[in-house]
Amino acid sequence: MQIKAEHLRVHLGKGRLARLYVVAGDEALLAIEAQDAIRAVARNAGFSERTVLHADTRFDWSLLEQAERSRSLFSARRIVELRLPSGKPGKEGAEALVRYAGSAPEDVLTLFCLPRLERAARESGWAHALEVAGVWVEVANVERGMLPDWIGARLERQRQNAPRDALEFLADRVEGNLLAAHQEISKLALLFPPGGLTFEQVKDSVLNVARYDVFALPQAMLEGDRTRIGRTIEGLRAEGEALPLALWVVSEELRTLLQLKHETAAGKPFASSARALRVWGPRLAATERALGRVSEARLAALLARCAQLDRIVKGLPAPRSDSDPWLELADIALSASIQ
Fold first, then answer.
1. DSSP conformation class of 117
2. Among the four 214, 261, 322, 338, which has the fewest Cβ within 10 Å?
3. Helix or strand or coil: residue 242?
4. Is the model more confident about 34 or about 174?
């Protein structure tokens, strides 16, 4: 069966462990917490020995079956943990996982640690076999809009609370880095007693630890969040991000919007066009709103500016462009976000 990570503790509290767990997700903090919770309950249930396998591209999949069959002189119940950071076991690994799912004994608790899988991998035979054999724990990403509430819930765990502006302030400083958010929240517990925190208390204690993600730029553009666009581009520049990558991300989003403009103007339904261009999830509604905000002519002009900026990056002359390529990129992204 599949459960969300936030429901894992309720499942574990029922007192009956599954023989197999899969923890899948890209949020490192939440994945680690889910894995730790499973291990802690398993240890209390007598699973006192642990074998950890790292499945890289050269992994010998027979080691998984050996770990299943081996017996310990010291413990009758064991944890076998397999980490597959690529999320791609290959043909041999997929076959081994299917066999393992059907044969793992009751005295072995198996924990598979995976990244968030793409749709094809998630619907594969090996993933289905693991889910049927045990519990698949899906670790969802915490989107920017959900981050203040997530921080507030974490503060409540340590019997603290803060006003909304303090939660927003903290979210801005730790955006894209839940591990840093966890550290800052824990620090507030050390600095202040249980109860209400003021904005000034939060502001004075929190460092700017945001990890600026270049792939967060398109969502900010779609939402028309000009403050976030400026902050992200400034952060990317300060952190030494490669300008060509940032330019590619921005231009690809503009190209997608322009193609959607063409197709919807020709009468093609937005939903089918968006699906063909792999626009889904949180981007879908934001993209539809953005299409009504920018014209086809503006998108074409912004793409032309991206081409000019590409010339600057490559050291070629490009008239009528800002001499600072990062400022030019910021202006392009901000122009696409005009309400």
1. P
2. 338
3. coil
4. 34
Burial-class residue 302 by CB neighbours within 10 Å (0-12, 13-18, 19+): buried
- Give the pair of three-digit tokens for residue 301: 């002009």
Residue 211 has pLDDT above 60, yes or no: yes
Query: Please, which residues bridge with residue 49 across strands?
Result: 78
Spatial distance between the Cα atoms of 98 and 101, rounded to a whole number of angstroms? 5
pLDDT confidence of residue 24: 94
DSSP E strand boundaries for the chain: 2-4, 20-24, 49-54, 78-83, 108-114, 135-138, 160-161, 195-196
Locate tokens 């409540």: which residue? 156
Query: DSSP labels for 146-176?
Result: GHHHHHHHHHHHTTEE--HHHHHHHHHHHTT
- Angle (CA) 213-216-222 rounded to 5° is 160
Predicted local confidence at residue 66, as pLDDT: 84
Residue from 210, 209, 188, 208 nearest 199 by CA: 188
- Round to whole Å and give the CA distance between 162 and 310: 45
Cβ atoms within 10 A of the Cβ of 230, count? 15
Determine if the pTM surpasses 0.85: no
Report pLDDT for 212.
74
Cα angle for residues 132, 133, 135 (degrees, 5° grid): 80
